[in-house]
Each structure stands twice: as C-alpha cells, then as structure tokens.
Amino acid sequence: MTGLRLFAHGCLYQYRALFNWATPLGYASSKLLVPVFQVVFFVQLGVFATGGGDPTYFAIGNAMQVTALNGIFGVVMTVGNERQFGTLPLLLASPASRLATFLGRSAFHVVDGIISVVIAFAVAQLLFGLRLAHADLPLLAASVVAVALSTCGIGLLLGSCSLVSRDILLVANLVYFLFLVVAGVNFPVTRLPGALQVVSRGLPMSRGIAAARLAVAGAPASRALPLLGQELLVGAAYAAAGYLLFRVLEGWARRGGLQEAF
Amino acid sequence: MSVAAVELRALRKVYRHRHGWGRGSAETVALESVDLDVPPGELFGLLGPNGAGKTTVVKICTTLLLPTAGTARVLGEDVSQAGRQLRQRIGFVFGGERGLYWRLSGYDNLRYFGDLYRLPPDRARRRIDELVQLVGLEGRIHDRVERYSRGMKQRLHLARGLLHDPELLFLDEPTIGLDPVGARDLRQLVRGLADRGTTVFLTTHAMLEAEAICDRIAVVHRGRIIAAGAPDVVRRQGADLGVVEFEAVGIDDRLVQRLRQLPGVEAVQVVAGELTHRVTVQCPDPASLVLQLGPCLDGALAVGLRVREPTLEDAYIRLVAEPAP
Question: CA-CA distances (angstroms) from residue B5 to A106, B167, B314?
C-alpha cells in the first residue's frame, strides 16, 4: 500500500513539476479550446465534404482523438523536461524504481486525457446533437480509457527519444496528425491505401475509436471487446519499447557521461 | 578495520566525442590512474582547476558514470556493480541552479525527492522540517523555486542531498556562484555535517574553502592526483618558495610573460580587479626578484609590493602551473 501511495504521490509531483501546460491559462486552453476547435473544425469539414452527412461520425472520432493531446504532447513534455531542467542525473542516481518512475510519467495524463475526451463528447452533444441514448456507456467509457492508455504508450516511447533529441516535438506533431489521417478519426481505415492501413494497424487509437463507435451505436460488447484488447496490447508494446529505450539510454549515459547532454 | 568511504584504484576515464557525421571522433582522457582513499567521517576536498577531472570523479562515485578502467569502491561497494542499495546510502549536490523543479515549491521539491528515496511520509515531513531549519529556508520553503535567489537554490540543493540522511555526501563545487556571505554560511553548514559524523567529499577550486573546512585535500590536475594530505602538508609543498605580491596598473600579457622568464620564477598569477591587477609571483629568492621588478615592468605602475609566506593557494597555483607528470 505504501508503494502504491508513493507511486501516486510521485505521479502527481511529476505532473506538476514537468508538464508545460500546468498554468491555469495553458491548462484551460488545452482542456477546452483545443478539443472544441478540433471537433468543430473536423465535423464542419466532414459534413461539408460529404454533402450534409451524419456529423456524429466525425464528432466521435475527433472527440476520441483529443486524448492524444495528453497522451503524446503531455507525456513527451513530462519526460523530456527532465532533460531541460537538469534533473535527469538526480533521477538516475536515485534509488527510485525506474519502471515506476517511467510509468508514473504517464499516469496523470491518462486521467487528464479522459477528461479531455469527456469535454469533447459534451461539445459534440451540445453543438452537433450527438445522441448517447442507445449507447453502451460502460463500453464507451472502457474505449476512452483504452485509447487514453494506448496513446500514453506511444507518448512514453517518444518521451524516451526526447531524452536524446531536442526535436522530438516535431515528431510528436507528426504522430498527432498521422492519427488524424490513419486512425479512423474522420474516415474508415478501410478507405485508406493498403500501405497506410498497415501503418494504422501498427499504431494505437484506430481500434479504440472503432470500439467507441460500436459502443455509441449500442452494438454488443462482444464485438468491441476484442478491439479494446488489441488496443491495449498495442499501447503496452509501445510503452515497453519506451521503457527499454529509457534503460538503454541510461546505460549509454553511464558509459559516455551524457546525462548533461541529454 | 573500517571500510573506506571512498577507495579509488588506478581509476581511468576516457570520453569519446563524435565530431559529426563522417568527421570521425576524438578521445579526451579525463582521469588517468587515480588512486585515492577517504576514510569514514572525514571532510575531504578534491581541488583542481576547471576540467581537471573533479566532477568526473564525483560522477563515477555517485554511479552516474562508469570508469573506463580501474575500480571505484564507495562505502565498500564497487560502483560499477552497485545499484539501489548504494544510491540509498549516498547523497550528492552539484553546483549551479539546475537540478530543481522550478515550478514546484521548495517544500514540494523535497517531498518529491523524499519519494524518490522512498522515505515514509511521516519521516519525510520531519526530516524536511529539520533540514529547512538547518539550511535557513524557513519562511520561503513554500515559495516556488523559480522565485529563489541562487543562494537559496543552493541551500535547497543541500537539503535535497541530505534528505535521506546519507552516510556519505558528495558536494561538487557547492559554493559556485554564491556571494561571500552565502559561501561562508554553506561552508559552516558543511563543516557542521562533518562534525556530526557525515563523511563529506567536496570538490572545489576555492583554496580558502578547502583550507577552512577540509580535514584532508588532494589536488587533481589533468586527470592525475598531484598532491594529497592535510591542507598544511600540501601548503608546505611550496615552503621552499617565497611570494612577492603587488597591485599593478598597465600590465599586459607581454609583461606577464617577461615576469615568468625572470630567473627562479616558479609561478605567476594575475587576478584582474576593477582598476588594478593583483600579481603574485612565486620564487626561491623574493628579495632578488624585487630588485629585478622595476626594469621588467617597463613603465607599468606597481604599488603595495610585499613579500610573504606561501599560502595553500600559492602551493596550489604552483602545483597546477607545473607540467603534469
């Protein structure tokens, strides 16, 4: 229990200490303005492009995708700022569990990402009449949690890369927009060219969004649960790769004295 | 027989740098065959100019760096193999303002590092209260670190390093950038820690600091230990010399070079002041040197000339002025 408490405590401090948007204005804009504008923009575009099609398809996809703001940018900043603040050597020379510290970087972003999705769904309901009357809400909630977790997985991998690269936010931007294209946010994955479908299968989010659409439509859970299982597996694979990279870089830094260069 | 707090044997560290794509790489030898013993309870000072290898020694001892060759044992454990157990027993403070979470308060920084060192919450709270008093941050500890002065940040660093009550504390140039009063307070704090039984391994290039508080010192230069012992012993390495010191106006590199070429001159140090330069010349026969100064200075004005015994700083300057073996 003490271990769990220490973990939760550490997660909170890391979030407050390392996350760049932890000012009221920055937080409010990331929580409200970005989700609202993203949902409004893509729903309007989608409706216009399809000649007055169903806005809820675009609303669900984009509402789910805003979790990547936390999962990718939030986690990348949280890991990468350790380098900027010069605290990485202190962390590496401490007896703290590397795995707990590493995973702790994403814990509050999972929660924060879920809040972003809830706000985006509320916007979709208010502005575009998204109806959840027939939705399987627990399944929808599970889909949101799965996507929040899996995007944090890829965020942890990019975060580890940010320990050795100053330009990782460029890659994070690329991945964020790649999700818009290949993750079934605005159009079905099956409409993508074959190569992009392969990319989509290798990234988190598409299965979670598909499960969320099924949940909103009230489809049986048996159709959505396998998708959620796969979504979590993909996210876990990215998180594991991120952790391995983190440990490799730690060993590399010990041999080469690169903690300050990080 | 007690285990040495720090035991370095034939320690060598080579850094490899890449120049860039297709431009090859180069090596820098930071440490070359360093042997050193620090017994428990000692306040030990490692002195040396910038780039001498002091920080490399500290990084190896605190498990942040692996040696290229040789062994480093800290509290009886080989640092190359050591893990959590050793890290829990040592503390370290690097000089400068980085290494703190500026958006958190000083208190929250200490709570977070308490978590990293797995301190139970009650113990962490008690310990933080003690340390805040010890380092004199009462009244400001709940302010964000970004509002701290440099001296306050340095004191917070020290509190962080002491949070888990380490048996051995490494301080890498802890007074760098502090004003004289802040530096004196910090030295008193560190001396107090050593008096209460904590082994302290301090690096500095401030001789006054080393002379004032260290039980024993070693001088590292170009990666090698070139002198070691009690401050008095090291100081006496320059006892065969005398020191001529004066304030000069209008002195330039050419004149300094001429001073260095005078017969018997072992070392020349020039410290720039606001209006004058303080020139210190070490030689075996100061009286004879004084006679030669007039023609040598070639019109430059020299005032306040005096001859005195060498200090530790003079011995240090002489040591590091000599070519490394």
Answer: 38, 9, 29
Pairing mode, strands B90-94 and B168-172: parallel
> What domains, with CATH codes, occur in chain B?
6-236 (3.40.50.300), 240-309 (3.30.70.920)
Q: How many residues does chain B have?
A: 325
Q: Which residue in chain B is spatially nearest to A6 when comparing CA positions? A: B115
Nearest residue in chain B measured CA to CA from A257: B65
* Mean pLDDT, chain B, whole residue set: 87
Contact list in A for residue B112 (CB cut-off 8 A) is 10, 13-14, 17
Distances (CA, A) of B299 to B279, B296, B302, B305: 15, 9, 9, 15
User: DSSP secondary structure string, B289-308?
Assistant: HHHHHHHHHTT-EEEEEEEE
Amino acid at B303: V
Tokens encoding B165:
């009550």
Average pLDDT over residues B30-57: 92
Mutate which: B116, B142, B168, vs A, most A CBs within 10 A: B116
Please indicate if any CB of chain B lies within 8 Å of the CB of A106.
no
Q: What is the ipTM of this complex?
A: 0.80
